[in-house]
Amino acid sequence: MKKINKYFLSLLTVTTLTFTGCGNQSTTEQKDTTTTQQTEANNPETTDVEISIKDTVNDKEILTEDAKIDKNGLKDYLEKNHKAVFEDGMMTELEGIKQDEKEGQYWMYYVNDEMADVGIGDYVPKAGDEIEFRFEKM
User: Fold this and answer.
1) Tell me, what's the pLDDT at 109?
2) Which residues face 136 on adjacent strands?
3) Cross-referenced PROSITE patterns, in alphabetical order (predicted)?
4) Spatial CA neighbour of 66 closest among 52, 84, 49, 83
5) 39 vs 58: which has the higher pLDDT
6) Which domains does the chain have, with CATH numbers?
7) What is the mean pLDDT of residues 45-50?
8) Alpha carbon distance 7, 137 (integer Å)
9) Which of 24, 87, 90, 138 is 20 to 30 A from 76, comparing alpha carbons?
10) Contact 132/64 with Cβ under 8 angstroms?
């Protein structure tokens, strides 16, 4: 009789541990799913900004547009959509207008009316930013 009780008690213990382990796995999967959903909500796939391109040397407004900048960043967006050319990390051409070192004419960019303090490749846009590219004489 004692052998049957020990056997039954052992079987009951193993069964309880098995069900408990399965229950924890489900809870962990639910937590992981919730965390993933929160991360996706906090990190949208694109960031909405306004982009303006101006040639202040020739007093021309080239364009203003609403843009969606994806995870590849502003530099990639400009290369794909506005014929931007970069050399050594600096933008040397945009919309077919090339910088002219002899004349001291360069492309500069501003975020929310302030000159950017990082290069285009390092800039991380925030929703609602107004980004203005100006061809200027220095």
Assistant:
1) 97
2) 106
3) PROKAR_LIPOPROTEIN
4) 49
5) 58
6) 46-137 (2.170.130.30)
7) 95
8) 90
9) 138
10) no
